[in-house]
Amino acid sequence: MALTTRRRALTTLGAALAGPLALPAAEALAAEDRGHRPRPLWRAHAHNDYEHPRPLLDALDHRFGSVEADIFLVDGQLLVAHDPDALDPARTLESLYLAPLAARVRAHHGSVYRGHRGPLQLLVDIKTEGAATYLELDRQLRRHRHLFTTYAHGRVRPGPVTAVISGDRAARVPMEAQTVRHAFYDGRLADLESATPAPASLIPLISDNWSLNFTWRGTGSFPESERAKLRAVVSTAHGRGQRVRFWATPDIAGPDRDAVWGELLAAGVDHLNTDDLAGLEAFLDAHRAR
């Protein structure tokens, strides 16, 4: 399958590069009501999305194609926070993400973005012991099974949302044992380099820490050896039907961040990581026009 086709397919194996000129949120909603639907920015990933004033909703207003929620298993509940001291029993994965996504998909007749069939990625970062936390997460995802891309007996059935599990690595064991699951696993570069790599039906996403793999932070020229390494990573992943994301990239507005984002786009990296929703939206809109 061609790379462009794979990115546009309604599967866990691709992500689209899209985005018209930016509209403020209110104007975008009005435009949608008139039938003009701004295209989602599938490559935009909202890092620590739950720290925004309106978790999930702010990212969707900025047309992001991927959002990240950190979870802790506490007394049978999946609570969303970055650190244990910020836990709040009212801020659950169900209330902040699962229920709002289910309601939005119902309202939009089967998609997160009205008129656009690509799946939103929900990256769930497990902060407590992985196996036990995943089993509770799996139970909650099954309550919304029609919302999620599903793996069943060797086949992937696309859904409006694709859940990808990151964080504590122990989650992989119960996931691999399942013949039916409503989530997928976030791999690392080590998984990409393995002599027996897992298929994209388990690991559709390869994520890793930029600062541990590259010395360049956007100042001066990108070293050719590092550019070649980046492109080799992307080429290998895409050849296996997997997407690529790096965290810990520069995220302070300015020329260094833009330089890194530009190289990521040029290399075909599928998700750009940010806490600055408006900044990445504007950057992707500007670069789509080039």
UniProtKB/TrEMBL annotation:
InterPro entries: AIM6_PI-PLC-like_dom (IPR039559), HAT_RTT109-like (IPR051236), PLC-like_Pdiesterase_TIM-brl (IPR017946), TAT_signal (IPR006311)
Claim: Signal is one of the keywords in the record: yes
Superkingdom of the source species: Bacteria
Cleaved signal peptide residues: 1-30
Pfam families the record matches: GDPD_2
Keyword tags: Signal
Protein name: Altered inheritance of mitochondria protein 6
Organism of origin: Streptomyces ossamyceticus
Classification of source organism: Bacteria, Bacillati, Actinomycetota, Actinomycetes, Kitasatosporales
